[in-house]
User: Fold these one by one.
Assistant:
Number 1:
Amino acid sequence: MGGAEGEVKHEELVIVGAGICGLATALALHRKGIRSIVLERSESLRSSGVAIGILPNGWRALHQLNVASILRQTASPILGIKDIWLHKNKQQDMPFIGEARCLKRSDLIDTLYNALPPDTVKFGHQIISVKLDPQTNYPMVQLEDGSFIAAKVLIGCDGAKSTVADFLELKPTKLFDLCAIRGLTNYPNGHPFAHEFVRMRRDNVSVGRTPIDSKLVYWYVAHPRMQADNIASVDTELIRQYTTNLVHGFPKEIVEMVRNGDLDALCSTRIRYRAPWDLLLGNFRKGTVTVAGDAMHVMGPFLGQGGSAGLEDSIVLARSLARTMSTTPTDPTIVIEALDRYVKERRMRIVQLSTQTYLTGLLITESTSLLVKFACIVLMFILFRNAIGQTKYDCGTL
């Protein structure tokens, strides 16, 4: 843990959270010659979390981090998208433009971590609060053991329930009336599926499936929240039984995929998001403190952009800081200017992403009224006529 109660350690640049965005931000800073430490509450890397789709904009960021070539070896490309409406007997196929792959989350986490200098990540460091030092106005994080770390720059990459976001007084995240169950299924002799992302819908249940490689398949089942979800979410065997019931009536291959899923990989969660208007108006910087990744803009999984957007954050943030900082940041005015550039560059990008995701979520939520759904369709047509247009975004070079 951190140290004795009341003890204060001093660091230049501190990142909270060793998830995808936290590690990517540390690596981006390292590539620019800026040292950071990452505080992680767990005692080891949290490489669970099933899988994550990385779309062309995310691969551009991974290329800047110099890890894209390594990760390409771990996953096959996704060549197309297939939408199937089982209850309407309707199907739509679309080729995928640009690079897209579904990565095991552990492969992405391990690759980012292994590219960092040794001892960058400090495990077993649970932060419980952030405050400003009244003398220096620099942030101080309090650890669970009562000790403090004073930082000249603090970046919160600590997820949807972020302590750093609370310090910035960001509006609380909201919940869709939807749950998502995610899993992995291994086919020892190889799976029969094409390398495409398939979405199947039947009544109020949506199933997504995409291969990671020739033997491993990632899948999810999205459905309206029910009381039983609270019970199922804590027991993986119950999750599997519950999910098998949800996909009753889907093709046999889907039922078998769910039934044969890896119990250790199964997880069930409510879908959480930051409202687009909160992102438009929210204050993402206070002093030399800011946020990135889910701590900044957690969004529903409907566009598959959460991970890629966090990778974009890491590039833009490191580029902004490196433009005016040496390896030893000392002038808080310069740091504040850099963080303001980062926030300005990212704000409209994440507002666009979150708006498209929010409208998509409302459209597939059972409890949304017909009038609201009609308004969503109109707005989607006006604002997001190209459903995958967001993947063309380029966050630029480090």
Number 2:
Amino acid sequence: MSGCIECVKAIPVFSACEIQEGDHIVFAGTVYDHHAIVESKLPDKRFEIIEASNTFFGVVTGVFFGKKAIIGKSTRLFNFATQNIRVIAYRVRPFTRKETVQRARNFVEGDGTSGKYDYDLLDNNCEHFATYCVTGRKFSIQVTKFRLTSSLFWKSGFIGISDESIRNEKQHEHGIICKQCFEINKLLFDVNFMPIKKAADVQRGNIIRYSYWNLWHDAVILDIKDVNESHVTCYIAHYAFCGILSHRTIIRDELRVYFDGSFKLLEYGPPDYNVYDIENVIERASGRLGEQQFMLFSNDSSHFSRWCKLKREKATYDDRL
């Protein structure tokens, strides 16, 4: 198990039937996402989970003084309509779900561990525990993304963070993604960007890229409102920033696309790309309006727009996709 962050996907789930015993599950914690192993399913959307638990005070003091967390069981009731619940699907899963549960139980039962866990916020947190139970190797996608984001920000600013080609190169350079995923991504990101210079470049069903909150941002054009000599006003679907205390949400928005070259058209088309027809692109985009499952690097504006536009064969992740 390489720990490649592209070989491990966080899949949003919307019902209890989509979760299995032995799954690596993710849900919102007090400060950051919390990870656990599902031990058993109970009636009424309740689950028994095994987790590396720690208090916020324990996390803070542990950064400076070191602190053991407790591996224990708890029962959780999930509201799938309001909570962002995800299951981690693995392209390669060395241990079965049954074996994964037993590996987690070994910690609880004190099989050489006494239920203790040498907790470290960046190098041995609850996600490291869950990935270890599934794969035998401790790694954290959250920490990997944080470190990569920090590195890219200091070198290239906000634009560097949002440039997928740069991210792909850096991820492979630092061993964050495997060679196979690097090559797949390279082909996918090698789309031509054409500066938009005239109204004819802005059409329904197109994918456009522009600077949004100082980050590169993709959107799907749903409809054209009016045309001006200097710009086109159109309606788009995109993952919008809705405020510091609000979740990013896919919304229908109004946007002026200027003919000054700052807006780019992503030239997806045959033979390099197998695309949906215009009405299907718009239908797919409209069908996800209101969604609040934003995740940087794995379900952001570019992932949403490509999903609307491209017919892509689904990779096999843990027999879930």
Number 3:
Amino acid sequence: MLLEVVSSITGINQEMSNDDQLMEIVYRGLKGRRFLIVIDDLWSTEAWDQMRRIFPNDYNKSQIILTTGLKNVADYASCPDFPPHDVAFLSLDDSWNLFTETLFRKDLCPPQLEEIGKHIVQ
């Protein structure tokens, strides 16, 4: 995850760096900037403790959104102003409909994109 964030910020692949160096790069790269970070599928409170250290809190309306399947992780990572939001799983058909309606509005999904689109939805 750190490598992906560093690459998004710097545009450079930092594979030879250790975790401490990567965390420093992320922190410095985001410091003073407004950002939106989406962390998908977080599975432990320990992982959240490690990750939240790398995101500066400059009180500039930056946001971090995380998803998890574990209520205890959601409760642990939440803050009073933004309590966890429970979301039910969608069926594959409902997911596909939401995906295509969002991307293509009233048009149909082009046939050449259907296979990859269904893979993304799954």
